[in-house]
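G., before I forget:
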Amino acid sequence: MKPGPTAQEVARLAKVSQSAVSRTFTPGASVSEDTRNRVMIAAKTLGYRPNAMARSLITGRSRIVALVMSYLENQFYPLVIEKLSQKLQKQGYHVLMFISDGDETDGVLDEILQYQIDGVVMASAMLSPHLARQCADVGVPVVLFNRVPDISAFARHSTSSVTCNNHRGGEMVAELLLERGHRRIAFLAGLEKSSTNLERERGFNDALAQAGAAVYRRAVGHYSFERAQEAARALFAGPGERPDAVFVANDHMAIAVMDVLRQELGLRVPQDVSVVGFDDVPQAAWGAYRLTTVVQSVEAMVEATVELLHEQMREDARPRNVVIPCRVVERDSVRAAGAPAPAPKPPPKPRAARRGAASRPGA
Amino acid sequence: MKPGPTAQEVARLAKVSQSAVSRTFTPGASVSEDTRNRVMIAAKTLGYRPNAMARSLITGRSRIVALVMSYLENQFYPLVIEKLSQKLQKQGYHVLMFISDGDETDGVLDEILQYQIDGVVMASAMLSPHLARQCADVGVPVVLFNRVPDISAFARHSTSSVTCNNHRGGEMVAELLLERGHRRIAFLAGLEKSSTNLERERGFNDALAQAGAAVYRRAVGHYSFERAQEAARALFAGPGERPDAVFVANDHMAIAVMDVLRQELGLRVPQDVSVVGFDDVPQAAWGAYRLTTVVQSVEAMVEATVELLHEQMREDARPRNVVIPCRVVERDSVRAAGAPAPAPKPPPKPRAARRGAASRPGA
């Protein structure tokens, strides 16, 4: 950027001190109404803009929050970017995006710390204990979004987190499917080491055990669309009776599973198989899927995240883990209450997708 | 952020000059291998990080590119964020996200310019001639993504752009539908003033005219899922024969249209109505939609955008408009070649969506 008009020139034109100019452009600083007006008029006339970089060196605050992500394919995360950016912008903050390749998060975070940022939100990426310590050392608050800190004691004591009540969510799915008379309930996992998956699966299994039941079959989709499809094929291959319901660890994968069940295996949802997801991404409500799922409110999670960031920016703050309640939203992918269990059928032969044939309307 | 170890301390530990430390952390600056090693070891030992903010004040380059968006609901744009961030990160740049409310873009851009950024990419948001002039004045290159500059001469001469060949894309859709024997082809527009819509609709109408045909009905969806559904209901309401095909200005809306056609109006796609979208977002390939559409390669557009940014950062550069070719990808939502035209039917009565009933498998 070329150098523009300086604060000195503005001060001269407005007939005020340079410090008055600086205070006018520092949010929260005290300056009289009259001085402010003169400065703003002069600034506009000259085309002056305060230098946020310079100000950050002086104040130690850049008003920039880094957002680290690695998985935008799952429609949950673009929503997070949007809501978080909007909320922070209203408060005069800006979001510096970092897309991590999963393994490279440490390298990414290292770069982030060069920018004198005010806070870090980690979504869909993990923070190593080493980096957690470095952030704590330089006083940069870290909030984990949709995951809890690593087992390591240091990370637990230095990073905050916001999640929904994944364990309760998993319980609610098991309770719903049992209530509807399901007896062969499968589970399709996400990334097995992620806290979201661990918690959801644990809640699910705990509730099944409470009812004297257990998971019927299990496969792993790694939070990937394609791998969830492979996992679905494995879950529904013979021999033995096929599952009559499947809890899929997130909506993104649940949609992939519904495609396999209906397009490839010729099964009907929910008559032959009930399907439940998790997240309530916008696509879960699309007419061709109408997926029953567990709602994680992005709005509530983002509110809590921003609050936590501000809280953690204070010297005396201690990290906290915030848990947002979740609830089931029922659409059309689970057998209705009172519907008869379907007569047992042999596993259908897989059919290749036929091009050019009708997409049948759902109801 | 608390102040950390200084460059001075690193220089002392490494037994080199402070300027050698500075050069070690300046990409492209000349420094001997031995000096670099000593500096890096000392830096690691002390936990030193160069201050990117300070460096930017000195060099005039922050290595930050601003990305302005306003519409993440359309799955095309999260892809753009991801690819653009990854590409720029590889080159040592970072992306500062700004979500604009559509009307507030000027205010947003004003803030951006406080950050001494190296460039601006505007996607799904327009740049006023006033702001275009300001960016040009301070030497900040602006690249419009997926739109062309305003008619105003100044904007045209100072901003670059990357689009796909929207006009040719619109032509290809008309050609495909005519070739398949369609005679009552409707058009569902996006935001009427956007260049994407203007170009796609113009190409579409031009190709129809070439064949001695014309659009049968037209409605406006404003690039919104809900408004596209309202527009679809209007397009397919009686009296008169209903359209036998519809070109929808983007995939996001086309999916909304398919939901109305199949779930509400009981029509089959493609037997009763062919549907074509534009963009080729990942959801267009989902089994329950299998949408025929026009591919805009995000990868190619992002490549071109980054190249343009670098080019425009040079003093002598003149703005350019890059046009990327597009092509049709055929899935299952258009009547197959050689399929007979369906017998004319009266417009179906709308059916309320039945809860709990089967989602029929597609083929």
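Residues 64-165+298-326 of chain B form a domain with the Rossmann fold fold (CATH 3.40.50.2300). The two ends of chain B are 58 Å apart (CA to CA).

More on Monday.
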